Amino acid sequence: MASLKAFLLSLSLIFIISNIASGYEHHCNHDSLDFTPGLLDVEEDMSSLSAGRVLASHEYPNMRIYPYYDFLDSAPSSYKAYIQNEVAPAVIDFLQGALRLKYSVVGPLRLGNTVGDLCGEQVPSILRSGVNADFFIFFDSRVEDSTTVASSKYCYLATGTKRPVVATTNFNREMFKEARGDVLLHEKNMYLLIHEIMHTLGVSKNSFGDFLDSYGRTRRGHIKSVKIAGVTQTVIDIPELTQRLRTFYNCPSVPGLIMEDDGGSGSAASHLERKFFVYETMASGGIYGRRVTEFSLALLEGSGWYAPDYSYAEPYHFGKGQGCDFIFQKCSSSQALFEEFCTGSERGCASTGRSGGKCSSDTKANGCKYIEPDVDYDCENPDGEDNARLPELQVYGRGAGSKCFTGSLNNRMSNNGRTSFCFRYTCVGEGPNTQLQVQVGQEKIICTQKGQQRTVDGYYGGVDCPDPQEFCEGPGRRYCPRNCMNRGSCVNNKCVCREGFTGVDCGLKA
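Now predict its structure.
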């Protein structure tokens, strides 16, 4: 097993917010505290190794996560209730469904009397006696006049596998707010907490050196420095993960998972490169329309500790099929080589198809610009019509079934320029014969090829047609968000929630 050298810097996730239209921008600093995680002598089930065989993913037990909330007692009761009853349970249910564990803890997970503290806090009695879990996480909060949203770190690693087994998340109540019925804020909070906990599970440069192969041996040579489009970046090259990426991009020379090069020691190499993974939950920064994709789950699988259930991965198409130039070509302020990127300050639709926004610069995206989603123009925002050019024609709201379309449609003779609209749609047919039907008010327009502009009776300008096949297989694809959070069943691409849960993703308590 690898030594503790990779852990001499603490794992601390610091989320910073700036006042941007999409909600917040956060950065993670994994090395801000002088803290070395301890080793915990826990018994782990190594039976698959002793039998000399590699089990299929479904043969491993689901991960057991034990949350502890008593440190939140100093917070207002409503705040503790939100963390304890709403956001944390939803995220834990999701992770326990999405992750199986190769080396589960045998017997109770406990801190013996010789262990003096818990990440600087007093050890709760329940952890002295032990809990039936593979991972223990405790939550705390504070009031801090800063842009920090929350901080997290792991406290103890299993002696044998070096897998994190005890961790903490501390929320800044000034910045991490109760959703209070705001379903979009609740969703954003869930992605934030998924992001934090995934870091503590092993998505960190401080953990990569202790990753294991399928036979329980410490990996070697999988952490590389590769020059990509003139920038030297950390790349995680694990065969199964790298092959997923090569298939996705249709590029046989993708060197592996490209990690963020910007943001200093607290962000670089611990996040997915934003140029390629703008909407991935493990990229740095906060943005509406996040996705947990196959790639962050595959990175956890590459740790050798977890066996993910990929039915929990959400569709991702940013850069899909674009070939090697998408990876190795530079962006410039005057030329966007691919439709995922933009130039100038044009308005358009975010790549997920969920929201309108404006072409924005981004230092972490290596000079590339993309349409940054604006919550005011989010098709799932029930108040979106307040900012709509033609609210009488558009449909907004969570679960309303609309997506973003661009166009110049207006009710004046003078052209008001291009903007974004939220319309319901239907995909008919498949493959190159796909037809896109867009409902604009009472009128249905038909798109059969990219570049068509469809007019609407009584209005000037028109609606831009995307490529029907690309739209219906990409942003217009129906799916169950996060596999219904492990709280229901996905039936015909809609979540049927178990009793006690509700929402398009079963992420809310009924």
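Residues 77-98 form the longest helix (22 residues).
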